[in-house]
Amino acid sequence: MTRLDKYLVSLPERVLRSASALAAGLVREIGEVILPKRLRRTRLYQTMVETTLRFLIEQVGQVPDVYPSEGKLAENFLLKRTLGDGLDIAGIVAFHASPVWVLAALADISGAGRQLMDEITASLKEEGLLDRKQTF
Which of 33, 88, 133, 134 supports an S-S bond with 98, CB 3.0-4.6 Å? Predict the structure, then answer.
């Protein structure tokens, strides 16, 4: 097999990897601009969107140093993600909702509620309506 043959045989794979990384990177950057930071920090977004984009960029597209190295993807990410999505589909079929999505949404709502209460308390303390030394 000549060098040109090897190049032509590997061309579809390289095009697919490049297109995957480019599309995922574009979606990630658009999300950074359009979506509020509070939404991007939710467990639901992190679970459903961010890990998938990271997999497409780092693993499929083989683009290094896009994400910090301390938050590496799990070993066998694709296998674990496939099994997890299979369980999600089974939950959707059985209960008409994914248990993972429901639990992630509940975690986000409770976390947002706590943060909202902290903001309201701080605002009321600034206006002098609550004792500044008291914690609520």
Answer: 88
- Reading the block at residue 63, the tokens are 């683009």
**Parent domain of 23:** 1-73
User: Which of 14-18, 44-48, 80-84, 130-134 has the highest average model confidence (pLDDT)?
Assistant: 14-18
Separation CA 89–CA 100 (nearest Å): 10
Quickly tell me which residue has 């497409």 as its tokens.
56
Do residues 58 and 72 lie in contact, with contact meaning Cβ atoms separated by under 8 Å? no
- Domain stop point among 73, 92, 124: 73
Helix H or strand E encompassing 120: helix 99-126
The candidate with the shortest Cα–Cα distance to 49, out of 7, 81, 3, 94, is 81
Position 6 pLDDT exceeds 80: yes
